[in-house]
Design brief:
Low-confidence stretches: 5-35
Strand content: 25-35%
Helix content: 10-25%
Structural class: alpha/beta
Largest sheet: 7 strands, mixed
Distance between the termini: 22 Å
Number of strands: 15
Mean pLDDT: 87
């Protein structure tokens, strides 16, 4: 899940970066007409139109569903060397469209422009690793299929024996700017004071790479970052230098949020059709297989929810 997205209520403030027809990763693609019972290939997986789910899709979306995203945010949405939009959200959106017998028409905009673009009627749905919050639910319905929180990343072997965020009392935590939760960290300060320990020092840095460098150079004892970002890092060679700390009672990390497809409040029929498609893709194992391709199995859930808010305290 991304750092904070400001909920703007004006029209689009950023320029569109790219508009693309429905595609899978690599050379995979889908048939643009998506006839009933069609089989398409998305990142090596076969996805078929589901007749029952397709019946729930309103006629205005039979030609295409206009999906807005915000690249780059790997592994969810980013551009390959040929500036083709790829990633986990792209695969999932293409699979949703194929299941419903239609196609996905993709547009990438600045992240802060996503919700205003939907409000302006330029797009039908957002897939951008966007968290479900009460503020966003004022203008969007969410069909949720994932849960993501924050975790601690430590040096390989965990030399400082940090097993929980409460172990950060008196230590320095490096954090990417925009990912700082002041209320959450103040709760930790209160806990540390109650234990007669010094409070945690927060080192806010511009980018994730800067936060990782602070850990690597010994300026921080741990990095606080999204569980999906950490999982993606661990799929890469540089990930071998770090260990992920996730307490057993927090499988989705600290302060988890449901993540899903955001759909304007005035399109409940599209919301229900997308929910039907996601339930089909969850039941037949397609979602699990797609997430496994990107090393993101840990953020998956076993149910599809609509407008699900997580209210979890700092400590159980």
């Amino acid at each position: 899940m991304r750092p904070t997205l400001r909920l703007l209520t004006t029209v689009v403030a950023g320029s569109m970066l790219a508009t693309l027809a429905l595609t899978g990763c690599g050379s995979d693609s889908t048939d643009a007409s998506a006839p009933a019972d069609a089989a398409v290939t998305i990142n090596g997986l076969t996805v078929r139109t589901d007749a029952e789910a397709a019946k729930t899709l309103p006629d205005q979306y039979k030609k295409s569903i206009r999906i807005v995203t915000s690249a780059p945010y790997p592994p969810f949405e980013y551009f390959d060397a040929e500036q083709k939009l790829i990633g986990l959200d792209i695969d999932l959106g293409n699979a949703i469209a194929a299941t419903l017998g239609t196609r996905a028409e993709w547009t990438s905009v600045d992240y802060n422009a996503v919700i205003p673009a939907l409000q302006a009627g330029k797009h039908d749905m957002v897939l951008a690793s966007i968290g479900d919050t009460p503020e966003r639910e004022k203008v969007l319905d969410f069909v949720n299929y994932s849960k993501q929180g924050q975790i601690l990343l430590v040096a390989k072997g965990n030399p400082e024996k940090i097993n929980d965020i409460r172990d950060m009392c008196g230590r320095t935590l490096s954090v990417e700017g925009g990912n700082v939760n002041d209320g959450y960290f103040k709760d930790l300060d209160t806990y540390c004071a109650g234990q007669n320990k010094p409070k945690m020092t927060v080192k806010e840095l511009p980018k994730t790479s800067d936060a990782l460098l602070a850990l690597k150079s010994g300026q921080a004892a741990a990095v606080y970052l999204g569980v999906a970002t950490a999982a993606d890092l661990k799929t890469k060679a540089e990930g071998a230098a770090y260990d992920i700390v996730t307490p057993a009672d927090r499988p989705f990390g600290y302060l988890p949020r449901w993540v899903g497809a955001g759909i304007p409040k005035n399109a409940p029929e599209l919301r229900d059709a997308v929910a039907a498609a996601l339930k089909k893709l969850l039941a037949d194992g397609t979602i699990k297989a797609l997430y496994a391709k990107y090393g993101q199995e840990r953020i998956l859930v076993d149910t599809i929810e609509i407008n699900k808010i997580v209210d979890e305290p700092l400590f159980s």
